[in-house]
Amino acid sequence: MENMNKNRLFLASCLALITTAMTFAIRARLETVFGPEGIGLTLEQIGYAFTPAFFGFTLAMIFGGPLVDFLGIKKITWIAFVTHAIGIIWTIMADSMSALFIATLFVGIGNGMVEAALNPMIASMYTEEKTKMLNRFHVWFPGGIVIGAIVGWLVMDVMGQSWQIMVATLFIPLVIYGVLFYGQKFPVTERIQMGISNKKMFSSIGKPLFLFVAFCMFLTAASELGTTQRIESLLKESVAVPLLVLAFINGIMALGRLFAGPVVHKLKPAGMLLYSAIFTFIGLWLLTVASGGMTFVAAAVFAIGVTFFWPTMLGFVAEYLPETGALGLSIMGGAGMFSVSLVLPIMGKLMDEANAVEALRTMSILPAILIGAFIGLNIYMKKRSKTEQV
User: Which CATH superfamily, name and number, covers 6-389?
Assistant: First the structure.
């Protein structure tokens, strides 16, 4: 770690994640631009046009994970920068479903490369505080969504500017994180530091515990991102400006992750995940009946639930399955984003054929399954802890 500016690397990582997160908020706003009242796509078609953001993310993480060890964190970070830039430019030029699909694919690959490179970098830099620092890093996913949601509202709804100008604001954090990373020395991954072989890394991802947690990541990510990505359509009958509800949800998430340290210490990762699933389930059901100001109350409960899902799932793998290395973290993120690529068209179809309430009720099945899964995980981890103490 000598001659390495950890503070600058961490700050640059946060700006890269802000860029990633802003694309989620801005894409949610684009649903009205390209939807039935705009260019004329159906909600199901928009769901398909948005899926590359998630399966592109998945592919980038699955391929980027092993490449982080072979090519190094630095090269993967610069691949993220380039693909982000291409995706933003292509989005500005998009005028059809196919163009939006390609633009979203490049953005998704850039987002995936950010996670593939920077999650293991932070785990490597802060070996004694992995879950805490990953939560602090991931403050800027909801934080970036808040920024993106407010920017979208200000540019289009308050200032009356075009959607292209809204998308172009993504260049601001993109350029800043590029400047901050430029010329810096990057660490090697923790797996390389520990001297764990490629064979052991690949065999470790076949362990039952890892497969179980990856399955849970499939459901936690879909519960969180599937809901927030389609917030415009889900809540358009409940509140006047759904994008402000998105900002509200992510503001709560950012604060929660910022002060995650004491919660991690008290509940441990498995306990945090169980409570998260309970609040997420309750929040989704409340959103099916809430309207007006009560929508924000329901959204707050949902936000409390999803706050710790993503970083704690990654922290769990980093702490209890470190031998899986960057590949393990990438598979986790990839599983999460792939699940969202599946649920977006399903939610769109439910809203086209039924209504938003039916879509929310269907989504609530996912945290219901997670409640049972995380009860089992807590029991297993307590038994494992007792065994290790003997």
Answer: MFS general substrate transporter like domains (1.20.1250.20)
Low-confidence ranges of the chain (pLDDT < 70): 1-2, 38, 190-191, 261, 264-265, 388-390
**pLDDT at residue 217, as a whole number:** 95
Sign of the CA dihedral 130, 300, 276, 28? negative
Cα(335)–Cα(52) distance, integer angstroms: 14
SS3 of the chain: the string is CCCCCHHHHHHHHHHHHHHHHHHHHHHHHHHHHHCCCCCCCCHHHHHHHHCHHHHHHHHHHHHHHHHHHHHCHHHHHHHHHHHHHHHHHHHHHCCCHHHHHHHHHHHHHHHHHHHHHHHHHHHHHCCCCHHHHHHHHCCHHHHHHHHHHHHHHHHHHHCCCCHHHHHHCCHHHHHHHHHHHCCCCCCCCHHHHHCCCHHHHHHHCCCHHHHHHHHHHHHHHHHHHHHHHCHHHHHCCCCCCHHHHHHHHHHHHHHHHHCHHHHHHHHHHHHHHHHHHHHHHHHHHHHHHCCCHHHHHHHHHHHHHHCCHHHHHHHHHHHHCHHHHHHHHHHHHHHHHHHHHHHHHHHHHHHHHCCHHHHHHHHCHHHHHHHHHHHHHHHHHHHHHHHHHC
Q: Which two tokens stand for residue 295?
A: 């929508």
Q: Retrieve residue 329's tokens.
A: 């973290």
pLDDT value of position 14 = 95
How many CA atoms within 13 Å lie on the side-chain side of 229?
A: 31
Specify the pLDDT at position 240. Answer: 79
Tokens 């770690």 locate to 1
Cα–Cα distance, 352 to 31 (Å, whole number): 14
| Residue type at position 351 | M
The domain locations on the chain are 6-389
Q: Would you call 212 exposed, middle or buried from its count of C-beta atoms within 10 A (0-12, 13-18, 19+)?
A: middle
CA angle 86, 244, 176 (to 5 degrees): 35
Phi, psi angles (nearest 5°) of residue 127? -65, -25
pTM of the model: 0.78
